[in-house]
Specification:
Elements: H1 2-37, H2 45-56, H3 64-97, H4 106-144, H5 150-163, H6 173-189, H7 193-203, H8 206-232, H9 242-283, H10 293-303
Helix pairs in contact: 1-3, 3-8, 4-5, 6-9, 7-9, 8-9, 9-10
Length: 315
């Protein structure tokens, strides 16, 4: 038991150091450089060396006691900064996925609605072009007995998917990518994903849950990096090199969030399609009819919680 607690403490300390302290210490160093150089001497390394030397020779940090206090203060500030970045990361993730955008405050909700409308118009045009090319290829196969070149059809399909995997309902690509899973499962199998998922998660094999958890962690790390980008951006007010640094972080965040969301959505959809019949067996509701919708309708009816009605109302 003692060995287990020791190993657990070491692991927690490593995670605290890796996830909070080290990134926070790097941010504090950048902030110190911004404070020392300012806009007028943004790249003056001699000035920076001089300022660091002056700080190191200050009476407050020349003794052991002062150095210990300084180190403790830096560790505390770094950890606090790391926690702030993680909180901002949750805001970034919630904004990017935009699952509840219809409940946002009025100015943000109007922006989101305009973005959805704009994306839906672009997607509809791309989908129309894809369908026309697909129909033309089908006619060529029927009339001429040969397959047309698939490259134009694939190009139209890729252009459509670059906007959204299904008809846009969210203001962002990442939000629509996750939403597309629920749309497809409802359309193909009559499965209500929000109702089904908590029960299905408990019956999934350990390896499947580990893969999905890894994808969720990758998405969380990418969003946390977005929180760091938000923290670095205000430093540009005092030190202009912080602006390209924050921009580089933002571009990295965009790429990493998209990649992580795509992997997570694929795993989510695959897990439901592969294991929903197992859940139906556990619940004793596996359909016997030929229709593929039987299982989905049966599961949804069993798992959906009824809404209580006011006294005197009838369903």
């Amino acid at each position: 038991m003692t060995g287990f607690l020791t190993a657990l403490g070491q692991k927690l300390a490593e995670r605290w150091l890796t996830l909070l302290v080290l990134p926070g210490a790097l941010f504090l160093c950048t902030a110190a450089v911004a404070r020392a150089l300012g806009q007028a001497h943004a790249l003056d390394h001699r000035r920076l060396v001089g300022r660091i030397t002056d700080w190191a020779q200050a009476p407050a940090v020349s003794g052991v006691g002062g150095q210990v206090v300084l180190l403790a203060a830096v560790l505390a500030l770094a950890a606090a900064t790391g926690l702030a970045a993680q909180w901002l990361g949750t805001v970034v993730l919630r904004t990017v996925l935009a699952a509840d955008w219809r409940t946002w405050p009025s100015p943000l909700r109007q922006w989101a609605q305009a973005a959805v409308t704009r994306r839906h118009t672009r997607w509809s045009a791309a989908a129309t072009a894809y369908r026309q090319q697909r129909d033309a290829d089908a006619r060529a196969l029927a009339l001429q007995g040969r397959r047309a070149d698939a490259a134009p059809r694939r190009a139209f399909h890729d252009a459509m998917r670059a906007i959204a995997a299904e008809a846009p309902d969210r203001p962002t690509w990442s939000g629509d990518r996750v939403h597309a899973v629920a749309v497809r499962l409802d359309r193909d199998h009559h499965l209500d994903l929000p109702t089904l998922w908590p029960y299905l998660w408990l019956t999934l094999p350990e390896t499947t849950r580990a893969e999905i958890t890894t994808a969720e962690q990758a998405l969380t790390r990418a969003a946390t990096l977005g929180g760091w980008a938000l923290l670095y951006a205000p430093l540009a007010v005092w030190w202009w090199p912080a602006a390209p640094l924050a921009a580089a972080l933002a571009l990295t965040v965009r790429h990493r969030i998209r990649a992580a969301v795509d992997v997570y959505a694929q795993l989510l959809e695959a897990a439901v399609r592969l294991h929903c019949a197992d859940l139906a067996t556990h619940l004793g509701s596996l359909g016997t009819g030929p229709e593929a919708f039987t299982v989905g309708d049966s599961l949804t009816r069993q798992l959906r919680t009824g809404t209580p009605l006011p006294r005197g109302d009838t369903a």
